[in-house]
Predict the structure.
Amino acid sequence: MTRQIGVTELALRDAHQSLMATRMAIEDMVDACADIDKAGFWSVECWGGATFDSCIRFLNEDPWERLRTFRKLMPNSRLQMLLRGQNLLGYRHYADDVVDHFVDKAAENGMDVFRVFDALNDPRNLERAMAAVHKTGKHAQGTICYTTSPLHTVDGYVQLARQLRDMGAQSLALKDMAALLKPAPAYDIVKAIKAEMPDMQINIHCHATTGVTLVSLMKAIEAGADVVDTAISSMSLGPGHNPTESLQEMLEGTDYAADLDKALLRKVRDHFATVKPKYAQFMSAFTVDTDIFDSQIPGGMISNMESQLKQQGAGDKLREVLAEVPNVRKASGYPPLVTPSSQIVGTQAVFNVLMGPYKVLTAEFADLMLGYYGHTLGQYDPAVVAKAKEQTGKEPIEQRPADLIPAEFDTLKKEAAALDGFNGTDEDVLTYAMFPKVAPGFFKTRPEGPKSVAKDPAELEAEKLAALGDGKSGPVRTPIKYDVTIDGRTHNVAVKPV
């Protein structure tokens, strides 16, 4: 008997986050929503991750309104989001009352499936968010961030699955953010979890960067996986994900099937194929990179490190930095590398190469070494811990980091209320809580409406020619603007051509 495999479509969130720096405007998504809604997906991922940040930082778009728009346009779909546990969608831990308010408002505005993860796989950082989802009556999906190290084993992943089940996970996601999941471990991990909990739904999320993970999806399905994540083909591959249509075709003639409407998939594919060229200036150049199996740094993070090094006049040091990343990861207990741990470890590797090993610690890396992000699987290097204590004056902690954060929603509400353009809603309070430096500017400009950063291909070509000049009068001496992301914060930089 053929077993049906569910599919989560990623085009509206992780696909454009991975391929074009999360810059896709809502206006370029809405016309595909009706077809996506009817195509037969188990869920549609459309919110969370970096989309909240990008909406207010670059697109002058209210992320809550984006969610409400998706809810209206896809009434038949489970809407899904990626939530960073106690970090929510920001870059720090929040008090429990903020977590409760955020999950409640996300559910109220239309979210159905909350994929809750922690960058360190510390279950203590997931408990409050999972409980908050349960209170709303929505679907709580507990997440295991996949990584490899001498300490990470199949038994260890099964133990983490047990912990997530015991805190109320209605399904489990195995999240492979850097395309590290090879076919054999994909089979072994899913098989072992299913043997322990046969009725637990297992979702598999893989990126495509290393070129091996379509096979990994197949092996996971053979082992019992129930749902897999893919992106429509025109928004797939590179540092993105495996193509939705390829997954469906791969299953034909097997004991498994993905029951999606091919005609509608073609319409969705053609829509994004038309949209994609407008974002060429943001497109990642990465195609296939098996070096990631060694560095474990996702493709998008590599480009950020390149920017950091070039700013320091050390653009030729990238290979040294990539070689240093595994050393930093070992010193910090082998954390998975996903936001924010990938940025923390990657930036410290840059510092080590430029200044010498651990001569200077970033504030975030020092906090990681002292337990303020939670616990990693391995032991911290005691010499680096001592350096972190010396540099910060802090002591290591053993308790859940959020236990040290007093209730803060009321304080955040008072601060937000003093801002120009604040609309008085809890949603605006939460927007301010996530990004207190960006939100004030957004509140002021919000009445102007969304501002797409997409450009017509002809406009992009004209800009290139203008930068190069006409060959007679020389190049035009106007600055070229770049967005450079360092430690999760994006800076606008203008470089005047020489």
Summary: Residues 473-477 have pLDDT under 50 and may be disordered. The longest helix spans residues 341-355. The first strand starts at residue 3 and ends at 4.
